[in-house]
Design brief:
The structure is a homodimer of 421-residue chains. The first copy, chain A, has 421 residues and is an alpha+beta fold. Helices cover 39% and strands 20% of the residues of chain A. Chain A is built from 18 helices and 17 strands. In chain A, the strands form 3 sheets. In chain A, strands 1, 5, 6, 7, 8, 9, 10, 11 and 12 form a 9-stranded mixed beta sheet that branches. A 5-stranded mixed beta sheet of chain A has the order 14-13-15-16-17, with helices on both faces. The two termini of chain A are 51 Å apart.
Chain lengths: 421, 421
């Protein structure tokens, strides 16, 4: 007997699913306001879609296997390769810029630590076909507005914003060659977790050249004051992006932080992460510009910028929110049959009301009126509609307010139309 | 380069996803009217959840593999085992009857024929904890009402309704023993596809006893006139179910058809399928009572009845519906900057409108007003809001009707609140 879900996988009981639906609905509402269209792809893809281009870190964490048709396949660990594949297949026909979003469930086989999950849902928003920082600002604004839609302000969440091009140029001036750059960036991405480990990785990337390692670490130390790098020529797109976020009234959410690198190798420009202001949780959201990936996956040369926002950290952040405290009401009325002879009338009324979009239930098992009223209260119905022989003879129903206990006689013709008083 | 999804898997481009969303929204609306709560489980489960109890036919069609933690796992081929597991784990705490629905994506590795898919989405509705035919009638009514919500009537879709208990008793009278019953029922399930093959299977199930095979086939021939079996004692729940569907005004959808068996071994009572009236497509929906499964999976003894309705046959049926003809409108307005100096004002206005839930876009690249209006039309916006230096100076905006071509000057304070005339 199998009692539990696999480790790292979640069961969504109705109370859990209500929160998930609330998150999805908010994601969809903000995406719609930004003119984004929803798409989706398969949760299972050819393994090579991920192994070819996505960097080694992901490959070791895939759920992959050989299917009965002898194909190497994998559960999607992220949505971007699917997006690149789908856009690539119709690149000619799709009008640019493409503004698409999706809410895929994604899967990673991570060694479980501190309740870390192996699946989560992720809002993905991407703009494809526009290289300017206007697109970057647009997706960052959307990410911030999602959090604002959940009631979070700039004292609760922060955008950490950087541009790999600015950091790459600075690293170049510090003596890092083009060939060494990816290794150094990957190392800098580990700085937050362990400075020692990052230094070791930088040493490895620079062939053990202690002088240049010192140069890179001096640059890293200077990143606390970003003003200098913001004045470099390479920072023009980043400054444009910041200016646009300011014009949208979102400047107060943004901190420039050149230590943000983002682990994935495919980012090519502006990168960003959203965090809770207290930094108690992992990143809420991460994204950036990836102008080469589409060409690598599909052979079509189109610039892209986008982000992914997971449901798990977000739910953590919303734990004490108003939604969590107030369960949504499910039922409009519970119908009660006084005797067995009234059951057919209850069925007819139930169906008439449901046809009008009114949510109703009735007892599936015959029982006393008291028993049925108890069930009505247990189901959270605000009122009971009671049908007995007398009521049916006079064309009336008794409507009982289950919170207050008051009762009123209402014509059946009104009740049938969903008017209960 | 990977251009296509795996065979049998679908990419949902925005126009495809719009139809899927329409189907899901309708499913959810009807389920809500019936007081059902949504749940979900993991798409990946322990293999034994399926191999132990679900009948051999499913097992050979699973996507299954050994994960990195050496667990045998499988993509879910159906939702019912997960439902049984989840309910079993909280059987004490959950108030009965449980009325739950889910919309899982399910996966089967079937040999591909005539474009048959290897994944689809499936509405599952189940009532758990109520053994009477009232529950069966309730879920059948919900299935019919889903199709009615899509605009389909009794001339377009039909319910084929049976009860395994009635058929089993009749087969018993025809000489089939309890031990032979499952084999004969599985054979009868193939009758629609090939009579010859079904006869061969019945022969096998009855140990080649030609006399009893003839008896079973005589019974099969008599099933065309169900009146006789409806008068047997075993038909009491079925008659109650039919009576209740009649009281709900849905009697006109129902055909009693004792040839409906349903392939899955776990059904124990009333079974039903919904078909297009012309029988041009596969079943739209199938379900029934499965009173033993929960005990087998979780050790908790609770009666269940439910159905699954896939999105693929349904979408086929809706192909020419009104929804397909009218694409939903996405944008409320497209904002146009006359000069580069107006771009920041456009950004501010865009953000003010989005904050009110108004869906707006603007050009991410600077360009002539004509170019921006072309883009606005291409994105399907009903109107353009044009901001130039003169407008800004006078606190006005030009609102252009993109269908008619007429223009009006509207105070910016109105436009900011989403009032465009």
């Amino acid at each position: 007997m199998q009692a539990k879900a696999l480790p790292g996988f979640r069961d969504f009981y109705p109370e859990d699913l209500a929160l998930r639906s609330h998150i999805f609905a908010t994601w969809r509402a903000v995406a719609a306001c930004y003119g984004f269209e929803e798409y989706d792809g398969p949760p299972l893809e050819a393994l090579e879609l991920y192994t070819q281009k996505s960097g080694e870190e992901i490959v070791g964490q895939l759920y992959h296997f050989r299917d009965k048709g002898d194909r190497e396949v994998a559960l999607r660990p992220e949505m971007t390769p699917t997006l690149a594949r789908m856009v690539g297949a119709r690149a000619q026909a799709l009008r640019k810029p493409i503004r698409w979003f999706a809410i895929p469930q994604v899967f990673r086989y991570e060694r479980q630590q501190r309740g870390r999950l192996r699946e989560h849902f992720q809002l993905n928003m991407d703009i494809i076909g526009e290289p300017s920082a206007a697109a970057d600002a647009e997706v960052i604004a959307a990410a911030v507005d999602v959090l604002r839609a959940f009631g979070l302000g700039s004292t609760e969440v922060r955008v950490r914003l950087s541009d790999r091009r600015v950091l790459a140029a600075a690293l170049g001036r510090a003596g890092v060659s083009d060939g060494e750059l990816d290794g150094v960036l990957a190392a800098l991405d580990k700085l937050d977790r362990s400075r020692e480990y990052a230094v070791e990785l930088i040493g490895r990337a620079l062939g053990g050249d202690a002088g240049r390692v010192d140069g890179v670490m001096a640059l890293v130390a200077s990143l606390d004051v970003p003003r200098e790098l913001l004045a470099t020529a390479e920072a023009a797109p980043l400054n444009d992006c910041i200016d646009r976020l300011g014009a949208m009234g979102l400047g107060g959410f943004v901190d420039v932080d050149f230590r943000i690198v983002r682990g994935l190798a495919y980012y090519t420009g502006i990168v960003f992460e959203l965090f809770d202001a207290g930094r108690a949780l992992r990143a809420i959201c991460g994204g950036g510009r990836y102008d080469q990936l589409l060409r690598q996956v599909s052979g079509v040369d189109l610039p892209c910028v986008g982000f992914g926002m997971g449901d798990v950290v977000l739910a953590e952040l919303l734990k004490d929110s108003a939604f969590e405290r107030s369960a949504p009401r499910r039922l409009d009325a519970f119908l009660v049959a006084v005797s067995g002879d009234d059951e057919r009338a209850v069925l007819g009324l139930a169906h008439a009301l449901r046809d009008r979009g009114v949510a109703v239930e009735y007892a599936l098992r015959s029982g006393s009126v008291r028993r049925q009223l108890e069930l009505a209260a247990a189901r959270g119905a605000p009122r009971a509609v009671i049908l007995g022989p007398d009521e049916r003879a006079s064309g009336m129903a008794v409507v009982r307010d289950l919170a207050g206990g008051s009762e009123a006689r209402v014509p059946l013709t009104s009740v049938e139309q969903g008017r209960f008083d």
